[in-house]
Amino acid sequence: MQSIKDLDVGSLKSEPVTVVSTLPVSKIIGTLKEFDAYEAFVVEASRIGMVTMRDLLQVKNVLTRKTSTLVTHVPKLTPEQKVGEAARIMSEYRIRALPITVGNDFVGVIQARSILTAMRNSEVGRLSVDKAMTSHVVTVDESTSAMKARNLMIRRDIDHLPVVGLKGLQGMLNSSHIVFNMIPSESPRKDTRIPESQRRLDMPVKALMDPEPVCCNASEKIDAVLDSITQRKVDYCLVKVWEELQGILTYRDLMGLLVEKPESRVPVYMVGLPQDPFEAEAAKTKFTRTVNMLSRTFPSIEEARSKIKSEEREGRERRRYEVSVVIKTTKRVYSYSETGWDLPAIYDIISSRLKRLLTEKQVRKRRDIRGVRPSAE
Is residue 262 part of a domain? Predict the structure, then answer.
């Protein structure tokens, strides 16, 4: 396991699927279908964005919606960074690829699929499926409409829905089955105001699902499952015990085997993080690191809390944030607040001012003690 985590991401580099942000969503769907891909990348100046299947699920009209409205800007990796770090980001934020850059050049991507290939015949591959699977599986009935299944995927933030019926497991529905069916026909009907992409989701999931899902048992080795996933070109395996569905193994579950969760020295609580996973991750990382660093100098810190409020301003695409931070010690509570448009930058400001605030308090306390001692003697 250690050797996989320590691999350079550059050693597993592959070619990305790239698109331009001005394309309508229907064109992006067509491109992903052509390349059998889960995500496409958008290069905008010095930033690299991503559009995934789960983003596309939320689109109501694929003909009029522009790709630019769906792009999430993602962190870039250098070829020398480690697979363990890439796996951590993929696992925590449910994505399957990250861009690799050298300077300002976009040179490739590291994909979950490539990491899984490297897992085969390793220590991880010898683990049993029950060590990594997700036990509580969300399912749908075979008569459920594709539209309801789509809404369930969006609400639960998932890509897979096993389909069940009177005779048990009937098939597997995934996000690509739905998204690829949203592309309108050559001559869409014009006698209704409902977008063609939504009308095409009126059918039951049984018409879209894969009737022969990949399955395994809980005691099977991950190596064997990786072989099955690779051969069938799928991104999951359903876990059955005595024909009963017991769990599911996905890319995210497998990525989790490579992730060492860092433990905070002090309890850290954050409320109101934005939906953008990378902006949220940057804010969490900055605040947690600041608190951990402060706790080394000030061991009296018991907990740290931060509350984020955001508001949209008319005529602006970006949100304005108001961040408040409370640091509780054994003797008193310190608080600070800051506002701005860039959330990670706000936490940088708060970090430096918290360090200054606590340092000043400590220096003042020492001066008070030195001032009292002469008269006490």
Answer: no
Lowest-confidence segment of 137-146, 294-303, 328-337, 356-365 by average pLDDT: 356-365
Domain residues for 276? 268-376
**Residues 220, 136 share a domain:** yes
Average pLDDT over residues 94-102: 92
Per-range mean pLDDT, top range of 124-128, 234-238, 271-275, 302-306: 234-238
Number of folded domains in the chain? Answer: 3
- Both 226 and 299 in one domain: the answer is no
Task: Evaluate whether residue 120 is within a structural domain.
Answer: no
Q: Which of 115, 146, 176 is the last residue of a domain?
A: 115
CATH of the domain at 213: 3.10.580.10
* Residues 240 and 310 both lie in one domain: no
Burial (CB count within 10 angstroms: exposed 0-12, middle 13-18, buried 19+), residue 306: buried
Mean pLDDT of the chain: 85
Q: Which residues contact 119 (CB under 8 A, 6 or more apart)?
A: 4, 125, 222, 226, 254, 257
**Structural domain contains residue 261:** no
For the cut 90, the answer to whether the pLDDT of residue 42 exceeds it is yes
| pLDDT over threshold 80, residue 361 | no
Selected residue with higher pLDDT from 332 and 116:
116
Stretch among 28-32, 41-45, 58-62, 121-125 having the lowest mean pLDDT: 121-125
Last residue of a domain, one of 227, 256, 285: 256
